[in-house]
Design a protein that fits this description.
There is one protein chain. The chain is elongated and about 80 Å long. The chain folds into 2 domains: 222 residues, Rossmann fold (3-Layer(aba) Sandwich); 182 residues, no CATH class. It has 10 helices and 20 strands. α2 packs across α3. By secondary structure, the protein is of the alpha+beta class. About 6% of the residues have low confidence. The two termini are 25 Å apart. Strands 6-7-8-3-9-10 form a 6-stranded mixed sheet, with helices on both faces. It has a 5-stranded antiparallel sheet with strand order 13-12-11-14-20. It has a 5-stranded antiparallel sheet with strand order 15-19-16-17-18, with no helix packed on it. The protein binds adenosine-5'-triphosphate. Adenosine-5'-triphosphate binds next to α1.
């Protein structure tokens, strides 16, 4: 049993690259804690610093209330599983799982019983005498997890243990791993770049970008109440609409979100009004999840300032629903670039998105249909402006003009720096 505290931890590699910046995190005893973020954000570096495999440049690491910066890895009672859990190829599953107990000189009869019990919990009992080379990837990962857990570490660290497996197996194993580590009560830090894995497994999770902690909380908190535009966009599937707006506080009318050719209107009694007033005349980012947009009959009554409209230009079938992409002429924001601490990568010399290359080739018309290209506004403009869901019965057709009511209580508002305009409760 152990808790982990990172107090202002930084990692600068000898190359000069800062991989982790001023990391402040508390991982509680017995928690299944997930570190989530895109490739290169510093997740593995943090895990390796906790394990003692990577030196901490500055800041303090506390393990169970004691400073652990200089503690040798073997003195931390930590077990780690990697993407490809390395097993001894000439030892059976049983032999691999027995190994840590042999090294620590455990009683052989007790060790054997323990291995059999854990192998059963991992669904490996029927293959306990097989060599790793005869196992599937998922079975090998289970055996690696078994070997790591057998000596009951105080802290269990897992670095993308499922990323080499196919989608079906990942889903199956993530449920099993979560159940197993919870039943063992071992504090676990689990690294992944997969949002679904993080949200389905975590007791609490941290979202990282460029070595910086963007948000931390339970999956429900971080999803429903994200601290930054980056977190909101990273966790949204289907993608969140991220619009560039100018905010105007207008007496008698409320708070206007000027989206270029369209606008939304928050009443003065909106709970966010007090925080929003300080953004009067400034750019804000409006995050709208597709499920907060509901198609309505054109011309049907709706409160002014609660409707967005557009022309459907593409539809995607997702089995249980359709996703529609409507051109609305509203400037959008690339949330992954908003509020970055590290300088963004230099711009690509050539358009890299297929749609941009096609558009360049076709002289500005990527999709057929001959519709005039929408007017460009300030801000980063994408053609697929407005993404919304349509049930199997209510799907629009390509080219239809659609009106969508916006659930204003559920829109997320961020300042130009990407941080939420209202403080996020945690
Ligand atoms: N030994 C090293 N020397 C210099 N830079 C390094 C070293 N190891 C990692 N980095 C850099 O530090 C940053 C963080 O790397 P890290 O492996 O922690 O990221 P990650 O979030 O785990 O990525 P991934 O999901 O791709 O594994 C990256 O930019 C990486 O290139």
């Amino acid at each position: 049993m152990t808790d982990v505290v990172l107090d202002g931890v930084e990692k600068v590699y000898p190359s000069g690259h800062t991989a982790v910046r001023n990391m402040r995190l508390r991982i509680n005893d017995g928690e299944l804690f997930v570190l989530l973020g895109p490739s290169g954000c510093g997740k593995s570096t943090i895990l390796r610093m906790i394990a003692g495999l990577e030196e901490i440049t500055s800041g303090i690491l506390w393990l169970n209330g004691a400073v652990a910066n200089e503690l040798q890895p073997r003195d931390r009672n930590v077990a780690m599983v990697f993407q490809e859990g390395a097993l001894y190829p000439h030892r059976t599953v049983r032999g691999n799982m027995m190994f840590p107990l042999e090294v620590s000189g455990d009683d052989r009869a007790q060790a054997t019983a323990k291995v059999v019990e854990l192998a059963r919990a991992l669904g490996l009992n029927t293959m306990i005498d097989r060599l790793p080379g005869t196992l599937s990837g998922g079975q090998r990962q289970r055996a690696a997890i078994g070997r790591a857990l057998i000596r009951e570490p105080s802290l269990f660290l897992m670095d993308e243990p499922l990323s080499s497996l196919d989608a079906g197996l990942r889903t199956e194993l993530r449920v099993e791993i979560a159940a197993l580590v919870r039943s063992s009560g071992t504090t676990t830090v689990y690294v992944t770049h997969d949002q679904v894995e993080a949200m389905t497994m975590a007791d609490r999770m941290a979202v990282l970008r460029d070595g910086v902690l963007e948000d931390v909380g339970t999956p429900e908190q971080v999803y429903a109440d994200p601290a930054t535009a980056f977190v909101a966009a990273f966790l949204s599937n289907p993608p969140m609409n991220m619009f560039q707006a100018t905010l105007w506080a207008v007496e008698g009318e409320g708070l206007l979100l000027d989206l270029g050719p369209q606008r939304l209107n928050l009443p003065w009694d909106d709970p966010r009004a007090a925080s929003l007033i300080s953004h009067h005349g400034q750019s804000v980012i409006v995050g709208i999840r597709p499920d907060t947009l509901v198609p309505i009959e054109a011309g049907s009554p709706a409160r002014p300032g609660t409707v967005l409209s557009g022309q459907v230009r593409a539809l995607e079938f997702h089995g249980h629903e359709w996703l529609a992409y409507a051109e609305a002429g509203i400037p959008t924001v690339e949330a992954s670039e908003v509020g970055r601490v590290a300088p963004p990568a230099p711009p690509e010399p050539e358009p890299t998105r297929l749609v941009d290359r096609l558009r360049a080739l076709l002289g500005g018309r990527a999709e057929g249909g001959g519709e005039p290209a929408p007017e460009e506004h300030a801000g980063h403009h994408r053609r697929s402006d407005l993404i919304f869901r349509a049930g199997p019965g209510g799907r629009p057709n390509r080219g239809d003009r659609v009106a969508l009511t916006v659930d204003l209580d559920r829109i997320l508002l961020f300042g130009a720096d990407g941080r939420r305009v209202t403080p996020v409760p945690r």
